[in-house]
Amino acid sequence: DGDGNAIWMYADQSGYLFKEGWKKINNIWYYFSDYDMVKNSWVENNYYVDENGYMVKGWKSIECDYYGYGYHSFYFENDGRLARNKQIGNYWINEYGYYGSDAHPHY
């Protein structure tokens, strides 16, 4: 990109570049935006992809710097969707998808 960061793209066996959306590669889900694999980012406000571009499942500590609130522990279901308003083990996940009492949106 223009900032000197690597751009990760995916081409299938015929050379077709995947442009936009979710793509399962070797049993791992990735999200692409304008041909680039997204990393360390919220996707559609319901999913998160980590530093490797993998769709997150289970617990993940994510910095919520948009509001200056620091890190929160979020829980993502087996399909990668953010859990909301439910009990996970001994923890209550609030309406914004994380464990804690200081409820505010993550995006």
Q: Describe it for me?
A:
With 107 residues, this protein is mainly β. The chain has no helices and 10 strands. It has strands at residues 21-25, 28-33, 36-37, 41-43, 47-49, 58-63, 71-76, 86-88, 91-93, 98-99. The protein is elongated and about 50 Å long. The relative contact order is 0.14.
Any key phrases for this structure?
elongated; mainly beta; three-stranded antiparallel beta sheet; 0% helix
Structure described in brief:
Helix content is 0%, strand content 36%. The protein is mainly beta.
Helices and strands in order, then pairings?
Blueprint: E1 21-25, E2 28-33, E3 36-37, E4 41-43, E5 47-49, E6 58-63, E7 71-76, E8 86-88, E9 91-93, E10 98-99
Antiparallel strand pairs: 1-2, 2-3, 4-5, 6-7, 7-10, 8-9
Characterize the biggest β-sheet.
3 strands, antiparallel
- Order of helices and strands, N to C? EEEEEEEEEE
* Overall pLDDT score: 85
| Number of contiguous helices | 0
Radius of gyration: 15 Å
Strand order within the widest beta sheet = 1-2-3
Helix content: under 10%
> What percent of residues are in strands?
35-45%
Name the shape in a single word. Answer: elongated
**Beginning-to-end CA distance, first to last residue:** 24 Å
Question: Would you report the number of β strands?
Answer: 10
Class by helix and strand content? mainly beta
- Which spans have pLDDT < 50 for at least 5 consecutive residues? none
